[in-house]
Structure prediction request, 240 residues.
Amino acid sequence: MAKKGDRGRCLIGIEGLDNILGGGIPESNIVLLAGGCGTGKTTLAFEFLVRGALAEDSSLMITTVESQDKMMSNIPKFTFFKDSMLVKGQMSIVKLEELMEEVNVSPNKMDEASIKKLLGAIGKLIASKRANRLVIDSIDTILTEIKDEALAAKFLSELSVILYKNECTAILVSSAHRCDGIEGRVADGIIMMGNLERRGDMLRTMQVIKMKGTSHSRLKYIIDITPAGTLMTPLLKGGS
Prediction:
């Protein structure tokens, strides 16, 4: 299990990010990981799961677009990730489409009854895997199919209850550039990823916008994705 703080913390495993959060994400929080294309969202979320597996947490990813094979082929090759993590069940990757088929839910008809079935399937999966960490990549796929904003809010609120009951901490990946959507309002935390052009280079950036249950830095950081993991450096003001 991940180390615990006063409330109970889920260590992300990225030293710089854990430090600015005062020891990791407060346990059972929902964190929205938002940003545009190429900002490193999926890679950071995947590292969160792998680091969990290394810390003897059970990690679960629900992918809404890519198959496991395609996603794995696109993820950078971390030196600390082993295929055996998937074989031994320390990490599990499930495609949303397969989960919906199991409970007879159509993605084109996400009414209240369908949402209840899907939440039940997600809750059952978390419980069966004893998952301490969950990533949904991306949450946009689900929310765009829920046409009613009140139902979307209900989905996220009831997901939060499921996570709390199972002591599971979640990262919801989103390609949205704004944080004022329903997912941003419901989420306990928001981490924004971005691209910054500087002297002809395109740099990736990260900034914690909010995180309930802990004080944190709101500085913007330059991140570098390496085989050894994600590295963070404060963005110097006034640089060009």
